[in-house]
Amino acid sequence: MLHGARAVFFGALFLCMLAATPAPSPPPSAIITGTWSGTLNAQGRAVPVVLHIIRASGGILSATLDSPLEGLYGLRLTGVSAANGVLTFALPAAYISYRGTIGSHAIIGTFTKNGAALPLTFSRPGPGTETPAATPVMHGTAQPGGPALVTHPCAEGKSKVSALCGTFRVYENRAAHAGRTIELGFVLLRAEHHSGRVVYFANGGPGALTTMYAGAIADGQWLHPLWILRSRYDILLLDNRGMGESAPLDCNGIYDPAHPATYFMQLWPSAALRGCRAREARTHDLSEYTTDNAADDLNDLRAALGYRKVVLMGTSYGTYFSFVYMRRHPQTVESAVLNGVVPPHLLTAPLSDAQGAQLAMDDVISECAHDAACHRRFPYLGAHFAAVARRFDAGPVTVTIRNAITSRLQRVRLSRQVFDDRLRQLLYSESSAAYVPIIIEDAYRGNYRPLAAMVNLVTLSLVGLVDFGANLSYACAEQVPFVTPALIKRTSTNSFQGDTAVRAEQEACRTWNVRPVPVSENRIVRSRLPVLMISGTNDPASLAIYAQEELPYLPNARLILQRGESHGGTTPCTDNLIVQFVLDGSARNLPTNSCAGSFSRPPFVLGLPRP
Question: How far is CA 179 from the centre of its chain?
């Protein structure tokens, strides 16, 4: 189950892969952290790039890359190392790697994309653009290891929005209130006009990183309602325990870009997962990474920061988190915005995957049939998709991909479970679903290269955006234990995905082996708090029916049903309603039907470049 977990610039990267254009580390010296800029000269075109090396946590570096000319910001890098005076990083999904020698004012090296090497020198920005010096401010109740809350001034995004960056120490075992402590990383974007109020954003997954998006939110590039609300509200971004900068359970190595044969056959490569489980269990109690504990962490951080109440804004799994927080700490909630609704008592994941995948695929087929250009190009899309899916009944299909590390073509076997799930993930947004007809048509005619490129891209795009160990700790404790054979049969019937994904996740959970939460934790959430829910009718992950079934238990809630929309999407119209709801603190007079026709699907892709 990976719900709302990624923000993939699919089209541009996918086209690069087809056209054949081509991981955290020891503590660096102090000069490496911060912002660096450079210019790539590619085919006579100057392309500026900006590198942000950020927040060393426990001696571990993380970094993001911006390409402003292409409108790409916050691309999460892997393999970030500054050992022995050499900086290295990679972006496997785009076949990008970098190696450079670190100097006091410049990093001189080579940028490689799909085997093509280009010189690239990074230098510090000019005077007056640096982030303010970090002066720690300590708050809160002392715990072993020092003050619970440590903050320092920072600035986020191109617009250098004033913020606080920091850590908050909590006990790993909250019930015992003793033993090992962990530090949670957070970013607090300051309101333009101080009001003492705060919006907390809960990301998807579980396991999706959050603080890495601080710059994009500060610049209005992502989650536009938060950018507007920052006029009056502080914006709190916290990596929940086990994710990002908060004692991460990343397990990113289970998808090794150098060895695609493993992740083309298994959604959860078993040998790599066993190795990760053994490593993480040495430094973490894997059963303590649950939504209940994470919700209590947030409540303690809220109090330490001095906020009386929070506005919850969750997407996908973030809505599940918000429900749990509302149940455990209702007196501290001002209101809640829930987009792509996952109520705990409905056990939607991974049982919703099969139904959602079929729903979204049926919609693509129907929309293509009613689109003149798409129907003319793909007149038998439904039949051809069924034929491609049936080929996997006989076993894995052999496909050819370009290895993200070596840039060489490689033949691998693609299994049914991976085909089913990665196609479902492609249906998460209309911009990526626009590629489905051409991918299926090419596969039907025997050209599996676009299909293989899609599987590779979707898989590697998750690396660095999701901490897979955290995903398993949460899901294997809270949802998978309560999946029964009868439920699997009922939810997988009449879906092309069938039970492949849920069986794969059950097997992964047997390996991860964490303690299930009590079944009572999945009880109905009843609340009189003001709640605004948004659901897409074609959501392959969080079915709209779940929001509709939760509505009677929330008497002060309203539901915006976005016809034709997929997973966690919004339009300018719904963004305005979100802002109005938060500012009013009530959904009572909200015109929820006013956005019914505000969504329009992007055009289908009718052709792809040939190698």
Answer: 31
> Pick the residue with more confidence: 14 or 467?
467
Does residue 561 sit in helix, strand or coil? strand
Collect contacts of 57-62 with beta carbons under 8 A, ≥24 apart. Answer: 57/167, 57/183, 57/185, 57/245, 58/183, 59/26, 59/27, 60/24, 60/25, 61/24, 61/25, 61/28, 61/32, 61/33, 62/24, 62/212, 62/245
Single out the residue of 413, 452, 426, 458 nearest to residue 18, CA to CA. Answer: 452
In the three-class reduction of DSSP (H, G, I as helix; E, B as strand; rest coil), residue 402 is classed as: strand
Q: Name the amino acid, one letter, at 186.
A: F
The residues, ordered by sequence, that sit 6+ positions from 250 with a Cβ below 8 Å of its Cβ are: 467, 468, 469, 470
**CA 204, CA 316: separation in Å to the nearest integer?**
5
What is the rounded distance in angstroms from the CA atom of residue 28 to the CA atom of residue 100?
A: 14
Q: How far apart are CA 389 and CA 397, in angstroms?
A: 10
DSSP secondary structure string for all residues of 405-454: TT--EEEEEEPHHHHHHHHHHHTTSHHHHTTHHHHHHHHHTT--HHHHHH
Average pLDDT, the chain: 86
Q: Which of 376, 382, 505, 400 is nearest to 451 (CA)?
A: 400
Q: Model-level pTM greater than 0.70?
A: yes
Burial-class residue 150 by CB neighbours within 10 Å (0-12, 13-18, 19+). Answer: middle
pLDDT in tens, 283-297: 999 999 999 999 999
- Mean pLDDT within 577-600: 88
Listing from the earlier edge strand, what are the strands of the sheet with 34-42?
A: 72-76, 60-67, 45-57, 34-42, 116-123, 106-113, 96-102, 86-91, 78-81
Amino acid identity for residue 510 in this structure:
R
Contacts 24+ apart (CB under 8 A), 80-89: 80/23, 80/24, 80/25, 80/53, 81/24, 81/25, 81/26, 82/25, 82/26, 82/28, 82/29, 82/32, 82/53, 83/25, 83/26, 83/28, 87/32, 89/63, 89/65
Structure confidence by residue, pLDDT tens digits, 114-136: 667 888 999 875 443 333 333 34
The mean-pLDDT minimum among 35-39, 56-60, 134-138, 387-391 falls in 134-138
Q: Beta 234-238 vs 397-402: how paired, if at all?
A: unpaired
Question: What's the angle, vertex CA 292, arms to CA 149 and CA 217, rounded to 5?
Answer: 60
138 pLDDT more than 50? no
Pairwise CA distance, residues 418 & 438, whole Å: 19
What are the counts of helices (DSSP H) followed by strands (DSSP E) for the chain? 19, 21
